[in-house]
């Protein structure tokens, strides 16, 4: 079932000012340019809900969208942009950390990874920290239409092997493309039962 309604709700730079945790919430994060805005637009069926490639690393805001009047989709700022100073990186880490640890309604974090790029330390470290905090997350491979099926499978296998060096079990994977809309139904079907559980 596609998303019927998707509306921008609020942007802020202070995790304490996020909306009250009255709806289930899902956060989307990844390195700058991973395809996060494109994925959010693809999932919601809106062409410009999230802004595609403005200036990478520039917007350090937590953006809440309300989907179907039922759940929050949260667009977190992209990390790992090389051109930012140490002070900005620290500010960013504090912002993300404050957000991640402060949301009782955060049911899952979608960590986006470009399927064409081999496992990156910054992504693996980010996931490791989520694990340390006991926060649930899944991995979303982006831009997968760029790889043929064999190359994609090899990339997924390599990623899984890398994760299994640290984790006992690999997290759930989603295979997506903003170009073909691959993965949309899978992600929405993953979210719906969690929403139903939250309401109980
Ligand atoms: P963000 O910085 O993570 O929000 O990334 P954007 O959504 O702005 O995308 C970064 C670049 O990757 C843009 O040039 C997009 O057109 C491109 N892109 C995003 N998703 C896909 C995809 O699924 N397939 C392909 N081929 N390109 C994509």
Automatic annotation (TrEMBL):
Tree of life domain: Bacteria
PROSITE patterns linked: G_ENGB (PS51706)
Pfam families, per the entry: MMR_HSR1
Gene3D superfamilies: P-loop containing nucleotide triphosphate hydrolases
Cross-referenced SUPFAM superfamilies: P-loop containing nucleoside triphosphate hydrolases (SSF52540)
Keywords per UniProt: Cell cycle, Cell division, GTP-binding, Magnesium, Metal-binding, Nucleotide-binding, Septation
InterPro entries in UniProt: G_ENGB_dom, GTP-bd, GTP-bd_ribosome_bio_YsxC, P-loop_NTPase
Cofactor needs: Mg(2+)
Domain annotation EngB-type G: ranges: 22-197
HAMAP family: GTPase_EngB
Similarity annotation: Belongs to the TRAFAC class TrmE-Era-EngA-EngB-Septin-like GTPase superfamily. EngB GTPase family.
Matching PANTHER family: ENGB-TYPE G DOMAIN-CONTAINING PROTEIN (PTHR11649:SF13), MSS1/TRME-RELATED GTP-BINDING PROTEIN (PTHR11649)
Xref: NCBIfam families: GTPase_YsxC
Function: Necessary for normal cell division and for the maintenance of normal septation.
This protein's name: Probable GTP-binding protein EngB
Gene name per UniProt: yihA
């Amino acid at each position: 079932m596609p998303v019927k309604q998707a509306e921008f709700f609020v942007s802020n730079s202070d995790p304490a000012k996020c909306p009250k945790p009255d709806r289930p919430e899902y956060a989307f994060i990844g390195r700058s340019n991973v395809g996060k805005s494109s994925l959010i637009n693809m999932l919601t069926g809106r062409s410009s809900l999230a802004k595609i490639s403005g200036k990478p690393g520039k917007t350090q805001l937590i953006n809440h969208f309300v989907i179907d009047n039922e759940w929050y989709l949260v667009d977190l700022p992209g990390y790992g942009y090389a051109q930012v100073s140490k002070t900005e990186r620290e500010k960013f880490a504090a912002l993300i950390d404050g957000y991640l640890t402060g949301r009782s309604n955060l049911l899952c974090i979608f960590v986006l990874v470009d399927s064409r790029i081999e496992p990156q330390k910054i992504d693996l470290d980010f996931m490791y920290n989520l694990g340390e905090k006991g926060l649930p997350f899944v991995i979303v491979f982006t831009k997968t239409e760029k790889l043929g099926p064999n190359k994609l499978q090899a990339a997924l296998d390599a990623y899984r092997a890398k994760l299994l060096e640290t984790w006992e079990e690999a997290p759930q994977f989603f295979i997506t493309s903003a170009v073909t809309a691959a993965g949309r139904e899978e992600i929405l079907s993953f979210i719906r039962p969690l929403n139903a559980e939250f309401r109980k």
